[in-house]
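Entry 12.
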Amino acid sequence: MAEERVEFPITGKITTVNVKAGDAVQEGDVLCFLESMKMENPILAPVGGNIASIDISSGQVVEAGDIAAVIEY
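Predicted 3D structure (tokens):
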């Protein structure tokens, strides 16, 4: 199986996590929301597959380049 690592494009604070490990996702599904500069930004699945790992939680501060999730497809 191939893996796609989903990285955060900007620094911010996670407000909502919509998926958990083992969930099936389609391309374009919202994985989580990231608040940055008073705007809520959706972090989308770039490919369809299953969430292999997601080690984030609401309220967590993340940096640009941090891994949001790993999707196996």
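Annotation: The chain has one domain: 3-72. The mean pLDDT is 97.
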